[in-house]
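Let us practice reading a record.
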Amino acid sequence: MQSNQTKTQYDELLQRNGQIPDQKEEKEPINLDTSDFERDVILKPSPVWSRAMTWSIVGVTTFAVGWAYFAKIEQVVGAQGLLKPKTTVQEIQAPLNGVVSTVQVEDGQRIEEGDSLVTFDSDATTSQLVSLEAIRNSLVKENGFYRTLMNTPLTQEVVEKNVIDLELPPEIQALALNRQNIIQENDLFAMQLGEGATGSLNGQQIARLNASNNESESRALVAQFRIEQLQKQLNQNQLQLQDARQQLVNDRQVLAEIQRRNRETIAQAEESLKIDQEILENISPLTVEGAVAKIQTDLQKQRVQDRRASIIESRANGQIEAERQQQQVETRQAEIKQLEEERQRINLQISQGEEELRNTRALTEKDIRDRIAGNNQRIAEIDSQINKIIVDNEKRIAELNSQISSAQQTMKYQELKSPVSGTVFDLQAHPGFVPRSGQSEALLKIVPDPGPNNPLIAEVYVTNADIGFVQVGQEVDVRIDSFSYSEFGDIKGEVTFIGSDALPPDQIYNFYRFPVKVELEQQNLLIRGEPAELQSGMSVSVNIKVRENRTVLSLFTELFTKKVDSLKQVR
């Protein structure tokens, strides 16, 4: 039995290899000896079959590679999103500080454009508007007063009245009153300089003006009196100097006369001495000869000696008298010199007095002008502070105008109306509802009705890895998740918008993504031959056809490249 089974297997193997056992051989006697079959059997396929198998594999492989090289496939980018109206959902926000009085709609209610939605309580807004306008008017009047104060002369009474009427802060009142006082003080100084009229001064200021003028005149009179005294001294000095000069002339004449007289006296005495000497010389020989008595000769000698003594005495007396007169001349010259010096001193004192008089008047004017300059500087500083107050008030007025405009706008829109036709959802407002301050909180939202002017579009999000080849105008297959694709098919579309920047991750999408909008070719699906309208908010899955020239072979080469890159990254 085992032999028959082995033979049967052998026949089946021959049939697989295309060989049919010879029928003649079957008629030969069968050897029932199975000892040869109990050994291992090694089957060798036919060489023809092997070649056929090899070439078949090569052909199929070549065909597959060639087909993969030339065959084109579509490359798509998948994304998910929602159907939304092309016109965005309208958020109806509350005006600032508005309080909801009544709500005319319900959540899910369909409304038409212009239907009343919410009415607000206007009492608070009206009170706020009145208060804002009152503050603005007060600031406008205040700025008008400041500008008038700086540009128009005002009396003290007018300034004080405006300060009280406007109820300015104490520091501002002090600035305004101080400025007015400084201006009036400058007017007073101008009166002192003779550059203004006294009509703008009150009684107290006129009294101050008179006192100041009297003081200035008093200082000028003192200086003038001193000059007059010095002028009298100068006149007296000139008389004394004139008299001294005349006396000097007389003294010099007396000196000259004394000198002349002394010279004549000495000359006469010398002439007499010469005669006496000649007489003595003439009688001396006679005395020797005895012709003349010796006593007579002695008397002549005595006379000569007396003459000489007289000459010496005359010279001495004349010199003494001349020296005395010379001393008198020098004394007179010294007196004249002293008088001249005194005259110079008096002239200098007169010049100084005149300069002092001029300085007294000039210093008074300079002091007044310096004080005017100082006051002008103080006025400039006050004006700078007032200008700053004006600028701050103008900013405040601008803010108030904005708030007033907002309040007026709020008053104008106390009744909110629907800007579009659609369906109300996410209704937050209720009677007494107050929006949170500083936040743009929506009272309700309106989903616009879809239609020819507001078709539904698919808004999907594409990841960073897939956005590279997505372009506007590419074809898109849109599959509605609510309707099975295998049963109801998809809707064709086109990319119409791609976001310029990626949106950051949030609670719904935990990855960076680009918003993409797809316009649909139709707004419904056929279900059992009937069109089923699409609704806003339906989830969709889209396939964006980004490339159509990619081959099947590129899929394998891309896988191979990724594997090679992964091997490079292994440490």
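A brief commentary: The longest strand covers residues 72-85.
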